[in-house]
Amino acid sequence: MRTCIIVLFVVFECSTFSATQSSHKHNRTATDSVRLPGAAFVAMQKIDPERIRAHVRLLSHDLLEGRGTGQRGGDIAAEYIATQFALYGLKPVGDNGTYMQKVPMVGITPAPETTFSLMSSTGVASDLKPLEQYVAYDQTQQPRSDVDAEIVYVGYGIEAPEYQWDDYKGMDVRGKVLLMLVNEPPSDDVNFFKGKALTYYGRWTYKYEEAARKGAIGAILIHQTEMASYPWEVVRNSNSGEKSYLKLDGSPKLKVAAWVQFDVAKQLTVAAGMDVDKMIADARSRDFHPVTLPVKLKARMVSKIRPFESNNVLAMLPGSDPKLKSEAVMYTAHYDHLGIRPDMPGDNIYNGANDNATGCGILLELARTYADAAQRPHRSILFASVTAEEQGLLGSEYLGKHPPVPAGKISLDLNYDDIPPLGAPEEVEVSGAERTTFYPEIEAMAKTFRLTIRPDSRPEAGHYYRSDHFSLARVGIPSFSINEGTKYKGHDAAWGMQQAEEYTSKHYHQPSDEYHPSMDFTGDAAMARFGFVLGWEAASQTKLIGWQKGDEFEAARIKSFAGAQ
Question: Going by C-beta distance under 8 Å and a sequence separation of 6 or more, which residues neighbour residue 339?
């Protein structure tokens, strides 16, 4: 990385120019260089991997108890981040002149009295075991809900007019429980659900939302590791103990939001006289129609309800331009993880070192770097460390609906989530960036940094819809995450893929995601530098960044512009 820095120094220092002079470069090609003012480049050089390490070590320490949402460890993490912002001299932009934006939430814990049974038409009941065979929550935030309803198989549970796809075909599913597949119809055609890349229609959150909008009282997702892109242990660990929700806002909710093991789905379909493999194959056709199964779900959902408040931590560096400082570029990273599972023997602290103490460490180092720079960019810089990402992007959803700067005045959100401390990267992943008008600048910067832009290594996993930038994109803000690819200095790409696969299978959402002194934060610092330069450039342009014409978020961007007037 030292050689790269020397090259960058020559490029930047010999060609230093003001943000005003560079602002016409909206049609820059990938062969051009992005250039920084000298003061910004000097600040960027001071980004320190050991400072990132120190933040990660603290935030993932056992004393913070896994940074659970609405739990003591999570609150301590928020206070730590706010204290760092204060030490850097950043302006608080939370509630009432503080760094904290209160997020009203409700914690729901399934009680032991909960029952979950599949009842055949002959009256034979199959009682399922929680966590082993199913997970389920009552989204209505009521202490008790009783369900005795027919199960309707709705394929992928998707209604997408732009792809001429409708799994419901006008069927009235009010009061029913819907059985559905995760993911979306497989295809290599980029014009059909974006080919191999997962769209939001494939995400479990969409499926629950659509089922509730249709008037269903429950939805059961069939888990398959290949389709979900993660094992049952991830589903189990993410849906055990208390789960958090934003306080009800009037939108419809499900009495049963559940997952079942694939073997359970097999048993269910056999009881219905059907074949699960054929049902999956049938769901891949536009001609698929919903099927009412001769099986009912009989469930008693008993929940412990705990209203509480968690916090997003928000700070700002005001811009230098009298007109443009009312606009902003934003950096985000979630600080929460899964807390403690008191019912689990042995190590039951989900420390979340990679996920996402690394992103917080980068966010804090970026905040310090901007604050220490001898010059400020024209637009303001927002720093947001958000809560409850692991609960379904809840903190960022609330932030998107209640931003300290109107969404129509935020040019860009750069998000950091789970940056592996594996050494010096030779690739960068910016999946979703190509959907924005800022992509030529990103290509030029990657070339300057001697980083190859790697396409999403697992597009079928739908990573774009699984991190906090998505919440900001939904309100129109051009947003994406910055991460390393799979090629690292001294290793081939296969080594990087092996590290990623091992982490996903053995450590992701497991207590073993812990800090180790052997971690190499060179890459985290490189991603921080890359994001610093992108953010400075975005903050210096005369025009706000937008989405490419026809993108799914373009309409939200237009709406946000109107709302910012």
Answer: 65, 66, 67, 68, 69, 71, 73, 74, 241, 350
